Known about the structure:
This protein is of the alpha/beta class. It has one domain (9-281): Rossmann fold (3-Layer(aba) Sandwich), CATH 3.40.50. 43% of the residues lie in helices and 16% in strands. It is built from 13 helices and 10 strands. The strands form 2 sheets. A 7-stranded mixed β-sheet has the order 1-3-2-4-5-9-10, sandwiched between helices. Helix 3 (91-102) links the parallel strand 4 (84-89) and strand 5. It is globular and about 55 Å long.
Amino acid sequence: MAFPEVWPHVEFGSEGPPAHFAHANSYPPLAYRQLLQALGKNYHVFAMHMRPLWPGAEPSSILDWRPLADDLARFLDQQNLTRLVGWGHSMGATTTLRMALRQPGRFRALVLIDPVFLPPAMIRLWDLIFRLGLAYRVHPLAKAALRRRSQFENHATMYTNYRNKTVFKRMNDLALRDYVEALGCPRPDGTVELCYPARWEARIYVTGVRADLELWRKLPELEIPLLILRGAETDTFWESTGRRMQRYLPATQVCTLPDATHLVALEKPDEILAIAKDFLRD
Length: 282
């Protein structure tokens, strides 16, 4: 796997302590513009482009999500970032947690938004499904990703198409426009194409959680403050998972935001920031 000489990323703010935000599958960093701009008022925020956004990166390069944490470690080393606040959403939240368990001194606090973190029994079951070669046939989101429309006449057409999708109904117009601008890359002929390849999106879905038993084993070793924010209607981070995590780490704070889904980071950025500010101030 060839790694970038200069790691692609975006930054918000320039003063204050460092923070890093790791994005979700198929949601590039600039999709979170509202949240990151607000966070940048008090922090110097870095948001690395994860492997699926690298030109020429092959989905077959991963069998699980551990290489994503390797990538994050290389980026933080390149930027000389330590003692930072680690933020992440979905895939990015799980990757950030894995990094914090590997390198305890790297972070001073974690804010994880609806992490992809399943109970151990579900992890074992999914690993078996993957080993049997059934993952692409069984995972509904992987199948949907491979069927997704990848080109549009322009950003306006793409926005109209997405505005009518149920999954985005709780995102306000500004958040959805940020997402469309971040995901739709202009082509020479004036059309736009998804810059997050469908093959990568599907690969992330089918390889997720396979290596996460190690996270459960190491979780009691985490010694920094941990805040988990979840949407009340999420299908990813269950209430029972939060309770289980608190048994492993009693100081963990789990906050559920009403009328929100797995996309809570895009649906309720102001509420997330307010809760996180109180947590980080304490």
